[in-house]
Amino acid sequence: MKRIFVIATGGTIACREGEQGLVPELPLEELLNYVPKIREHCELGAVQLMNLDSSNMQPKDWLRIAEKIQKEYERYDGFVVLHGTDTMAYTAAALSYLLQNSPKPIVLTGAQKPIDEDISDARGNVIQSILYACDDRASDVNFVFNGEVIAGTRGRKIRTKSFNAFSSMDFPHKGVIRDNHVVHYIDRKNPGPLKAYRRLDEKIFVLRLIPGLDAGILEYLGERYHGIVLEGFGIGGFPSLSEMGFREGITRLLDRGIVVVATTQVPLEGSDLNVYEVGRLFKKDERLLEAYNMTLEAIVTKLMWILPQTGDWKEVHRLFYQEINFDIWR
Ligand code: ASP
Fold it and tell me: Closest ligand 1 atom, CA of 55?
């Protein structure tokens, strides 16, 4: 029998109605009582690492989760992290960088409705996550949600209420769970050995451009952040007229060693800054990174993983463009 380790972190799945609204407080032991059948599939180990609404989850918590998995790695065959859905995509992407190339599956799941409600997705999501974590062909960091397996760097919460809350952005599902069987669409060839990292740089900022935005904000951000992600328009357009100050502002950021990534605020199909003049003018500076079709969650957490390792922009580029857990295609 497979040995599976469950890590509870909170989220709606563990919520109860409190005086101020839903709050995660169901202890893990009680939560697991709602899914007694999972013990027929595996030997279970479990820990309640925290009990947070995932809006309160921080990078230090991602590090705690990663460290716990690493600590238990030899004793278990797979891992299931129960997590709030709101920031699950950040945690899944962060774990993809902190625990790379894992031959053992690491699964994130949660629910849109608490496990103790009559109509809830929680029990199905937990059972399907355990099934996936037990599967011989499963590996790496993934979401298992609403019967779909999504690579850890590809998921995004796109619905606030429905059970099909997550989508695999610009990348096929890795598989589905049908009638309690895992169907694999995409396999990682010979994953392993695990490469684990323990540091993240939190000083990352995301700036979503709007028409009329004052480029003076870049100066302010440059004094406070080590990495800045600029969400431009369409396939890759940024305000380029010299009087707008963006080109000059970005050059100044790059000159002071700040990592700047250009991406698009359009959710699907990614960027190509070379198509229009309003993109290509910015690409002239080879120090500017372009995220192509990475999700925002992956861009942010990949920068957090890279920046503690190097300040050399060429090395930053090498690491950023290296594909990890299906995060980037160009
Ligand atoms: N607010 C909750 C959380 O992210 C939502 C959920 O879990 O679905 O913790």
Answer: 4
Q: Confirm whether 326 is domain-assigned.
A: no
What is the per-residue pLDDT across 66-91, written as a single tens digit (0 to 9) for each?
999 999 999 999 999 999 999 999 99
CATH, residue 209: 3.40.50.40
Provide the residue range defining the domain that includes 181.
2-196
Shared-domain flag, residues 31 and 95 = yes
- Are residues 300 and 171 both part of a single domain? no
Angstrom distance (rounded) from CA 80 to CA 4: 7
Please give the pLDDT value at position 152.
98
Would you call 12 a catalytic residue per the annotation?
yes
Q: Is the CB–ligand 1 distance for residue 301 below 6 Å?
A: no
Sequence letter at residue 131: L
Please report how many Cα atoms fall inside a 13 Å half-sphere around the Cα of residue 304, on the Cβ side. Answer: 29
Q: The pTM is what?
A: 0.97
